[in-house]
Amino acid sequence: MKKSLLIFSALLLGVNASAQKVEFEEYTLDNGLHVILHQDKSAPVVVTSVLYHVGAKDENPERTGFAHFFEHLLFEGTKNIERGDWFKIVTANGGQNNAYTSDDKTYYYEVFPSNNLELGLWMESERLLHPVINQVGVNTQNEVVKEEKRLRMDNQPYGQLFGQVKKNLFKKHPYRWETIGSMEHLDAATLDEFLDFNHKYYVPNNAVLVVAGDIEIDQAKAWIQQYFGVIPRGKEVVRNFEKEDPITTEIRAEYQDPNIQIPMLVQAYRTPSMKTRDARVLDMISAVLSGGKSSRLYKKIVDEKKMALELASFSFSQEDYGIYFIYGLPMQGFTLQDLVKEIDEEIVKLQTELISEKDYQKLQNIFEKRYVDSNSDIEDLADNLATYYKLYGDVNLINTNIDIYRSITREEIREVAKKYLNTNQRLILDYIPEKNANN
C-alpha cells in the first residue's frame, strides 16, 4: 500500500509539473529588441517589464555604482513625463512599479490593470527613447543612493558582509566590487559620463521586453511596434572580462564591523556560472546542508550540539561565476574555528558518501515545489522569462530547467562537492565586532 501511495504521489507531481508549463511567444524587432509575450487571463492584470543586460560588472572600475545609479535615475522623468510624475501616473492608474539591479542586469517593471497595457508600454518606451538625464536629476539621486547605502550597508549589522566576500574571492573579474558601488566614484562622475553610459547600454538590442498577463496578443504586438519599433538600434555591447585564476590556497581574511556584537563565520567558495549543470548541483548541495531545520548542518550544529545561533548555506549563482556561502553565528562558549571544524566534517561526508535514497527523494520534492512556486506569481514569471532569455540564452528554460534538477544523481552531488568545496579553494572570513582600542 505504501509503495502504491508513493507511485500515486509521483504521478500527481508529474501532472502538476506538466500543468505548470508556461506558454509564450517570442520575436525580435528590427532594432534588436527581443519581445516575449505570455497570455494569462486568470486575473485582469498585466506586467510590462524590460530587462537591460547591464549590471555592476559593466562599469568602469573607477566609476563603480553606475548601473545601480541608473535604476534610480531613470525614474526621474522623460521628454513626455514631467520630473516627479512617473510614480504619480502609475498610482493614478491603479498600478505599481519597481526595479532592481544586480551584477549582471537591471530590471524595471509595472503591474497595471489589464486595460492599462498601452500605458505601461508607452512608459517603458519613454524610459528607453526619451530619458531626461541632467545635473538636477543626478544630484538628487546621488543623495538618494547615499542614504540607501547608509541604511542598507554602513549602519546595518553585517551590512558589509557580501562586499568583503566578493573582494576576497575576485581579483580580476568585476564581480569584485559591490553593486551599489563607491560614493566617491559617483561624486566624481561628470554628466557626460552618465550620458555615455546610457547611450551605450540602454539600447533596444541590449534589452528584452516581457509582457505577461491578461493581454490580447495581436493588440499587444501592434502597440509594441508603435512605441518600441521607432527606437534606433544601438552599437553592440562587447564584453571580454578577464578570467580569474583558480584558488589553490585557503584565503584568510578578517573584517571588523562596528554594528555587530556577535561574530560571524563565513566560508565561501568561487563556483561556476549559473548556466552550468554544476551550478544546479550546488543548489542541491545547499539544500542538503542547510535547507530547513532537518538539514545536516542545522540539525547537527544548531539543534543537537547547540553550537550556533544560526547556520545556513546557499549557492549564489551569476552569469559568469558564482559564490557558495556557508555562514554561522556561534553560541557563547564556542569559537568561529569550532564551527569550521563541524562544518568541514559534514562537507567531507558529502564528498565521500552518497546521500541516502530517502534524502534524495526529499531533495527532489523540494525542487519540484520551488519550480511550481517560482512561476505561480505573474510578476516573478515575467522576471524569469526575461532572465532565462537574456542571461541564460534560452527562454524555454522556464519550462525545462526543472528537468536538469530532476536528472541530477546522488553520485553527481558527491562529485561536485569534491570538485568545489575543498579547503584549499575557499575563503575563511572572520566577520567580527569592531575591536575597542581602549580595551
UniProtKB/TrEMBL annotation:
Secretion signal span: 1-19
Any matching Pfam family: Peptidase_M16_C
GO biological process, one term: proteolysis
GO molecular function, one term: metal ion binding
Annotated InterPro entries: Metalloenz_LuxS/M16, Pept_M16_N, Peptidase_M16, Peptidase_M16_C
Keyword Metal-binding in record: no
Domain Peptidase M16 N-terminal: 35-177
Keyword Zinc on entry: yes
UniProt entry keywords in alphabetical sequence: Hydrolase, Metalloprotease, Protease, Signal, Zinc
Ranges in coiled-coil conformation: none
Family indicated by similarity: Belongs to the peptidase M16 family.
Name of the featured protein: Insulinase family protein
